[in-house]
Structure formats: C-alpha cells, structure tokens
C-alpha cells in the first residue's frame, strides 16, 4: 500500500480491508498507526544491505549512496518511511548515522557536523528521489501539452526529449554522487557553522 500512496492516507482500517481481516486484529499487535509504521520502517531498513568498511571516507559515502538507491529500487516504500508526521523513524536513523560517524572521524564536530549532514542528506535524498522518477519524466508522453509552446520551444523540447531517451539513470546518479562527495570535501576543508548571516541574493 505504501508503495502506491502517501503515508498520510495510510490507515489501520484501510490496511485491514486490503488484508481482508478485522481492524481489531491489527490493534492486537499494533496499538496505533504510528506503532505499525515504526515496525514497518524497522523491517524495511533492516533489509538494507550492509556496507563494507572503506579506507577512504569518500569511498564509503559513494557505497552508501548506491546502497540507498538499490534499496529504494527494491523497496520504494522505504523513502516514505524515513519520516512522517514530522518525526524521523529510528529504522532510517540507524542507516543514516554511519555517515555522521564517518564525517566525525574526519574532524567535523557540533554545528559544523550538523551543517554538513543537513546539506548532504537533503541534497542526496532530493537528488535520488528525483532520479528515481526521472525515467517516467523523460518519456515523450510527458510532452502532452507541447502545442502550448512557441515553435522554437517545441523544437527544443522535442530534440531534448529524443536525447533524454538515451540517458541512463545510473550514469546521472554516478555523476551526481561525485559532486555530492566533492561538496563534502569542501565542507571538511572549510567547515561552515550556520549563523543565518548569509543573505540571499
């Protein structure tokens, strides 16, 4: 169910109907929706492949990123079980903490570690989430309203989408992961402590 719908739409009665069981039978094992989601998150993230130790932190992060992608390929519902209702699931945190530990070993501490983890996590997961959807977005069928563009824009879009068909998702991911690791290298060399003083242009 979670692979096809948002967590906010998930409910014990709906799950009971899908399983053809009485809803009270679910409450025998899980006292609340949150308890059930926590158990699901633990189960899904316990299936995530272990990552072998690496001599270089860069290699570890690269392996971690690919492990996350492969896990989401097999369990698309996992991305919805990272957090819900404003709370992060312990199952996901246990898979996320090793990244923080790796950066801590490289010397980041306190607010500077927090900044690096915030940037890396949001950049990585946003990028991965977009790429998981990218094959569908690159289909020529997504240009259903092409006629609303001027002729020059129509030609540009048509040419791009024809070439998009030849793009392999994993090539884009590999390039993006190298950029993410390069960004972390910059944060290790020049740590940032967020002060709110940086003005947007």
Automatic annotation (TrEMBL):
<dbReference type="InterPro" id="IPR036271">
    <property type="entry name" value="Tet_transcr_reg_TetR-rel_C_sf"/>
</dbReference>
<dbReference type="Pfam" id="PF00440">
    <property type="entry name" value="TetR_N"/>
</dbReference>
<dbReference type="InterPro" id="IPR009057">
    <property type="entry name" value="Homeodomain-like_sf"/>
</dbReference>
<protein>
    <submittedName>
        <fullName>Putative TetR family transcriptional regulator</fullName>
    </submittedName>
</protein>
<keyword id="KW-0238">DNA-binding</keyword>
<feature type="domain" description="HTH tetR-type">
    <location>
        <begin position="1"/>
        <end position="48"/>
    </location>
</feature>
<dbReference type="GO" id="GO:0003677">
    <property type="term" value="F:DNA binding"/>
</dbReference>
<feature type="DNA-binding region" description="H-T-H motif">
    <location>
        <begin position="11"/>
        <end position="30"/>
    </location>
</feature>
<dbReference type="InterPro" id="IPR001647">
    <property type="entry name" value="HTH_TetR"/>
</dbReference>
């Amino acid at each position: 169910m979670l692979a096809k719908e948002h967590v906010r739409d998930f409910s014990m009665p709906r799950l009971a109907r899908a399983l053809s069981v009485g809803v009270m039978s679910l409450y025998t094992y899980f006292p609340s929706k949150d308890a059930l989601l926590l158990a699901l998150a633990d189960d899904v993230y316990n299936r995530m492949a272990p990552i072998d130790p690496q001599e270089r932190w860069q290699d570890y992060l690269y392996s971690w990123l690919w492990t996350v992608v492969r896990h989401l390929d097999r369990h698309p519902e996992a991305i919805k079980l990272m957090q819900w209702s404003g709370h992060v699931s312990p199952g996901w945190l246990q898979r996320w903490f090793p990244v923080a530990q790796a950066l801590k070993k490289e010397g980041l501490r306190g607010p500077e570690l927090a900044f690096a983890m915030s940037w890396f996590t949001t950049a990585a997961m946003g990028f991965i989430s977009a790429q998981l959807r990218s094959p569908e977005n690159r289909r020529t069928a997504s240009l259903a309203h092409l006629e609303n563009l001027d002729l020059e824009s129509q030609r540009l879009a048509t040419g791009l989408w024809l070439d998009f068909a030849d793009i392999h998702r994993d090539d884009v991911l590999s390039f993006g992961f190298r950029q993410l690791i390069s960004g972390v290298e910059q944060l290790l060399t020049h740590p940032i402590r967020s002060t709110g003083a940086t003005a947007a242009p």
